[in-house]
Amino acid sequence: QDEDKWDFVLVSDIHEVGSEKETKRKKFLDELSKKGFTIKKIEDKKLFYGVRAPKQIFRKYQWLLRNPDSRLQNPDAHYEIPVTTRIRIVNFILQNTVTSDLEKLHHLMKKKVFEAAFPLHEKEEVREFLKERWARWRDIFCQQPIEKIRCYFGEKVALYFAWLGWYTYLLGIAAVAGLVVFVAGITVFSSSQVSKEICEASNTVMCPLCDQKCPFWLLSDTCTYAKVTHMIDNEGTVLFAMFMAIWATVFLELWKRQRATVVTNWDLYRWDEEEEELAMELINNLQHEPRQYQHSYFRSTIILLLVLLMIVVLIGIAHALVIYRVIATALFTQSDSEFLREQANTMAVMTGAVLHYITIVIMTKVNRHVALYLCELEKPRTFSQHENNFTVKIFTFQFFTNFSSLIYIAFFLGRINGHPGNYVRIAGKWRLEECHPSGCITDLFIQMAIIMILKQTISNVMEYLVPWVAHKLRKRQRPKKRSMMLGEEEEAEDPCKRQWLSNYQLGEVNFFSLFDEFLEMVIQYSFTTIFVAAFPLAPLLAFFNNLFEIRLDAIKMMRLRRRIVPRKANDIGIWLQVLEAIGILAVIGNGLVIAITSDFIPMQVYKYTYSPCMTENSTGVDCSTGYINHSLSVFRVQDFEPYTQPGLAPTGLCCRYRDYRNADDYSYTVQFWHIFAARLAFLILFEHVALCVKLIAAWYVPDVPKSVKNRFRERKHSNLRKELRWVMPRRCQG
């Protein structure tokens, strides 16, 4: 039975006899033969080489990494080694076998000596179970068979799906909370006093939104926009932001417990990755000397400077998007279409969001190449160190790619644009954008909604369709059987040929295959937590996306792609630190959104300082009555810059704009500084309270369940007792 199984398949073009590529291929295969590998060659339109490692290699592995608790003393005693471990060991040896020309497999693949190297999807019971019970759309609400996934794809893939399942499960709670806040916003807050005042402000004339041809407009024209704003920007949002800060902490703490239970069941809780790597190096080459830990301050400084340069470029792209929105607003306001003129600001924000999504798609590819190049400069010692360094860099770049534009909208839009008569301009020509009188949070809501919906629909459709279409095309191109001549029948019917060909025609997998899935989910987690105060529906969108994502990834791995090389792991690696960092950013981000972007603080200051409730001791009046009038400043039309040409001036020669400035010299009023102090105080209070609650939640939920700790304690006790029994009789004999 073992004679029919092959650990790996190498694929090569048919090269001319005596050519350089053919010589290099022969040298590599000779090196494998010296190590005792069995090699089988099948010729089709390509050359296929099946390789099978000798049993001795796996016995060495079992002996070197035997479980110390079992005290296995007999080197000849060996147990059946899992298929995932076989593939992992063979892959390590293939990748680290050096030819006489000092070339490894990845060098040969770059030079097109070999085209592909992959383990086979075997027709085993586990695979059939996963195909039928896991990798199907109909199982979308079913629990995942994590143990079976581990048996087929190894621990790293199993932990990814365990983490994704756990994340989705807890997202359900956040999604319900977000939906409740959103529905409450629709039912309770859309009819708030502030919205009523805007809708009834038919005599409040607002200053023009652009320099040329823009009319003065009435505040009541934006009634619908105001209602939408107060659906999002209300007291419920503050509570939800606090809830999400706690949710992020509890999610990670519960995941740590879940992970501890899972890896303890796999007997990997105290597994040492470095020991495993050293053992594999020695199995591959007994003369191997371990690489020393090294650190170069000069190299680290260069890499840090290059990372900062890349971040500056990404921030520059965010600036370019700002400039686009400014110019687009100016062009839309001068358009012949009445709809475009009226909705110029909203249209600029929406088209800007689509453009932002396109830059995300393009820069994702650029970021990967830059991060890889920087990792090569660092010369990491091990594969896992390389993976960690790459993860930190690509996440940093992706974070700035995804969030620079959102950070501008949340914290700078409408705050650095000056005021009528003294606007801040780009190239001395175009005015920066302004916020709507009812607040900036709707702009952030629109941006978040468009990016999340586009990312989760287009990206997922492409993620599934591209490999599916590619798979169907490769199947069509499969060469038809030649008309057999006498003597060729046996070769054509080789049982391995069909299996190797069908595996070769599946989509390619590489180091990035699982990494990409993790990165996609971690960026989504950032969207779900960091600006959730502006978009309470983010957890709901993420929840539905993840239900599909789990099955989509399963179908890709089982049906559309070659078998991924299994990797051993006892946690999700550096991603956990990244998620913890996002949890802290979420507290800061949501605190800033409520303090700066939202109108929550100005409204509270008004209610408790300037409202009729405070000044007139009126009990039957809504305390926010008069807030809109209080938040708008007065501008004299004759003070416009000379080259601006607004529409017909209103009667009274004054217009209103959103700010807290004096009517005579346009300096900030006392109210502005009062609100500024209140924003700062709220931000400090919110972040300290949220971080304290996070710390209490982290303390309250232990990382490791007591059952796991007790299991290890009992195991240690049992082993020590066995040791003592082993020593006592010998002493008596002595």
UniProtKB/TrEMBL annotation:
Originating species: Himantopus himantopus (Black-winged stilt)
Single GO molecular function: chloride channel activity
Positions of the Anoctamin dimerisation domain: 82-146
Subcellular localization(s) per the UniProt record: Cell membrane; Membrane
Protein name in UniProt: Anoctamin
Family indicated by similarity: Belongs to the anoctamin family.
Keyword Glycoprotein recorded: yes
Pfam family, one: Anoctamin
Record-annotated Anoctamin transmembrane domain positions: 149-714
Entry membrane topology: Multi-pass membrane protein
Primary location: membrane
Transmembrane segments: 157-186, 237-255, 301-327, 347-364, 390-413, 522-548, 569-596, 676-701
GO cellular component entries: plasma membrane
UniProt keyword list: Cell membrane, Glycoprotein, Membrane, Transmembrane, Transmembrane helix
